[in-house]
Amino acid sequence: MFTEAIKSSDSASVSTGTASEPHALVLLRRASNRGYAIQPLRTGGAIVRYRRAGLGAPRLFVHTFTPIVPADPSSLDLSNLRLIDEVKTARFVGSDRYAAGVIEAGAYEIPPSQTERLAGQGFLVRGQDGSLRLTLSARLTLVAVAHECMDSSDRTTTWCSCGLAVHCKNAESADARRLGHLTAVAADFLDSLSPAFTAAVTAV
Ligand SMILES: [Zn+2]
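Above: the input record for the complex with zinc ion. Below: its predicted structure, written as tokens.
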């Protein structure tokens, strides 16, 4: 579940609502199809920006999707998420070694304390067959972490953790290029979601 906050450039007020995981996925896909700028967030949310023409100057709209429990993943959380994503099936199981349950991910076992951290940050959902899948939030977090951008002090140069480096004449152009990169990344991410993931999200 996400909180959705909507702000427009011609109004000081912010309207808020909630969006379920399937609804947020539909909204992000629609935004991507319309070419809106999408920025995945490390917290498991995303920011969507677009301009709409009307009378007078075009208005800028900003929709911010924030998970009800915003994530704050450690590097160990992130590697556990990548592990769960890579193996065919992951499940919550009882353990011979620990009092609490663990996640069995292929040949690996994620200990209870780490399992608890992943569950507590809303990264996992148990499907009808008992297997675990990553939530949309977990996937947005992974995309955001793979493309963390850093600007030079005058903001004319941006480096992305994927290796991209952009140098522009001014900060506005660099901002636009960075947002364009993140939007392309988000579009690729939304396109890459398997039909199985989409079906699992919408089946909830
Ligand atoms: Zn990047």
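Notes for the reader.
The helical segments are 21-33, 75-86, 112-120, 136-146, 171-192, 195-203.
The pocket of zinc ion is lined by residues 147, 160, 162, 164, 181, 185 (CB under 6 Å).
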